[in-house]
Amino acid sequence: MNSKTKIGIALSGGGVRGIAHLGVLKALNENGIFPTKVSGTSAGAIAGAMYCHGYAPEEIKDIIVKTNYFKFMRPAISWTGILKMDIVESLYQKYLPENDFASLKIPLSVAATDIKRGKVVYFSEGSLIKALMASSCIPGMFDPIAIGDNYFVDGGVLNNLPVEPLDGFCDVIIGVNCNQLPEQHNIKNIKSLIERSVVMSMNYNVYSRKSKCDFFIEPPGLARFGVFDIKKANEIFEAGYQETLSFIEENEDLKEYSTTYTKNQIK
């Protein structure tokens, strides 16, 4: 491989299914494939931030399972959302104490939706934690996150596979989607109706960007896991890991980008 080849990895949102991203990263790393830059939306942004900070993929999975930050969120007394994300900020501070994009070992871009201006914004400098909170702020479930004079919700609303920050910077782009939709779904209540509608919308904007990727990894079977099904974290992780091992074997071109592992790239 040419050591100057820049590899970008775009990670989709998908709730707890985002743990599959960690299995994907583990398999890529074991095969000597490391990103020069990472971009992510929602769960992909969280996984990406922890990885770019220097945590190993399995270490990140264990942190997510241990914290299960959804249970710490308190009800919001407002018309804009059901829950507030304020208390999550202290959890992020524990694992991302520098709270600055500049402190990351690998450059990261985080996608969020500016709800007032109706556009995607890509954060890559300044406060890391606020950007992560904005990127994973599910509209209607959480109060929007204020950054400056603007308010932000989940980046997946408009861009659930943010390849744009990688385009023109990276020579090779690997897209990873973990937000699959079951072919059939029994709508039992308003929660399941909202969840399916959101996933349908997000999947549409993922596949519209698939052609921008040189490689596109989509671990099969993730649709059987709920977006908040933290108890299945190990299965989800393994699904991403095994699919990527198979993907690498089937794609000789991807193997060309393997390089020698160094501790400076990831802990």
From TrEMBL:
GO terms for molecular function: hydrolase activity. Pfam families: Patatin. GO terms for biological process: lipid catabolic process. A motif (GXGXXG) lies at residues 13-18. The active site is at S42 (nucleophile), D154 (proton acceptor). Residues 9-167 form the PNPLA domain. It comes from the Bacteria. InterPro entries: Acyl_Trfase/lysoPLipase, NTE, PNPLA_dom. A motif (DGA/G) lies at residues 154-156. The keyword Iron does not apply. The keyword Hydrolase applies. A motif (GXSXG) lies at residues 40-44. Keywords: Hydrolase, Lipid degradation, Lipid metabolism. This is Patatin. It comes from Rhodonellum psychrophilum GCM71 = DSM 17998.
